[in-house]
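Reopening: structure tokens for the flavin-adenine dinucleotide complex, inputs below.
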Amino acid sequence: MKKKVFIIGSGFSSLSAACYLSKSGYDVHVFEKNNSLGGRAAQFKANGFTFDMGPSWYWMPDVFERFFNDFGKSSKNFYKLKKLNPAYRVIFDKENQIQIGDNIDNISSQFEKIEKGSGEKLKKFLKESKENYDLAVTNMLYKMPGKSIFELINSKTILKVNLFFTNIKNDIEKRFKDSRLRSVLQFPVLFLGAKPSNTPAFYNFMNYADFGLGTWQPKNGFYDVVKAMVSVAEENGVVFNTNSEINKIEIEKKQVKGIYVNGELQKCDILISGADYHHTESLLEERYRQYSESYWNNRTWSPSSLLFYLGLNKKLSNLNHHNLFFDTDFDKHANEIYTNPKWPSNPLFYLNITSKTYNHTAPPGHENCFILIPLSTNLEDSETIREKYFKIVLDRIKRISGNDIEKHIIYKRSFCVSDFKETYNSFGGNAYGLANTLMQTAFLRPKLQSKKVKKLYFSGQLTVPGPGVPPAIVSGKLVSDIIINNERTF
Ligand SMILES: Cc1cc2nc3c(=O)[nH]c(=O)nc-3n(C[C@H](O)[C@H](O)[C@H](O)COP(=O)(O)OP(=O)(O)OC[C@H]3O[C@@H](n4cnc5c(N)ncnc54)[C@H](O)[C@@H]3O)c2cc1C
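Re-run output (same inputs, fresh job):
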């Protein structure tokens, strides 16, 4: 008889694990507390607009492709992808903006116009960054379940050991003088959840992901990827249960016996949780937890966010699909997220306008957008404070781009710290898990397999490899490989 695997949550790591394990002959059942699948990549429709609630930057297309190839498919079998050109716009003020092109030659010429000699320096930097990408993502990522330091040591990483002990900020500042170019090159690190001064320079492979591989957009938004993975899983027999909240994990003789789904015990042989790690441990009796509250309180968390999903009855000008408002002090905002957590005095923010690429995500003549302000976790959250920041960002958009958004809002929804906690059981309201700092890299992250409870496993952005959709997909593969290997040896 097939072994029964239960998976808590339906984020990308859970979907990925469900696909790999069902293909390997397990009887897989997914339990999601919310009424739709995809975790933080949820989507909702309102007044003719289609909003992606979470991820919007489709980077590292090779990781998505590799996943589908493992099932004899390609992303093309499920969704249409468009490479964006310009990829995104970085806004320093009204006259001072950079639009990032879709290839290295073009971006190098743009750099050269801003700082003499920087075009060639950029090409050299991206050559190194590509080498790191090939080493880290193409070769190592899939072989690093985070069990020991030895996974990190090989002849190539030894040569790059200095890159683990210098940070990206210093590395970039040594190479480029212009503050705008420095900000553009530090931006990709924000995907790793930590500030650039706290991120090892080895992670500059994210710059190759950005400029080398480009920014893509699925035709119907990121939810196309969720649907595609659900379809692969269902083809392999996975059963999905929504509105199914797990309240407790049942243990017998130090081994998983089952889970309480909406209060009712259901038995399984193996359990994976793709829900936030801290929350999953709270479903266990204290003696079976591996990490203390002080452990979690002392981690470096990725930011939370204040989000506004907006439907506008007007087209916006002087803006692209992805717009980064870097018109305030980057370091000050980063300190207000990580060092001295508080509501930011004058935050950077991101404005996404999906309908700039795909009209059908909004009614004709309308615009579909969302605003994201990165915040520290655990901030006191209220309607009044959300509105205060809404006004701040709308004023800045109006002053810089000339678009008076306020008069044209026909749909508005906000989402912030308390919603992250309530909707996803997220620790402190984090948006994308534990940051990839030096002390939270690889074997130093929470483990994929429980040391205290047999047949209990974890996946997702709080484990290895880290935050973001591509790492979550890899995380599901890594945990499946461990399970398949462990079960073979039993
Ligand atoms: C606003 C935002 C923007 C982002 N932008 C990007 C981006 O542009 N590009 C990118 O690559 N990444 C981005 N990310 C990060 C990316 O979305 C995440 O890293 C990834 O989706 C996490 O997947 P996961 O599998 O770890 O789990 P999650 O997506 O967190 O899924 C966990 C699931 O578990 C469920 N759950 C929790 N508790 C229980 C319970 N007790 N019972 C049952 N189910 C439970 C939750 O409801 C949730 O569905 C963004 C994230 C956010 C929030």
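The pocket of flavin-adenine dinucleotide is lined by residues 8-14, 31-34, 39-41, 54-57, 245-246, 274-275, 279, 305, 307, 372, 424-425, 431-433, 460-461, 467-469, 472 (CB under 6 Å). The two ends are 16 Å apart (CA to CA). Marking as resolved unless the reporter disagrees.
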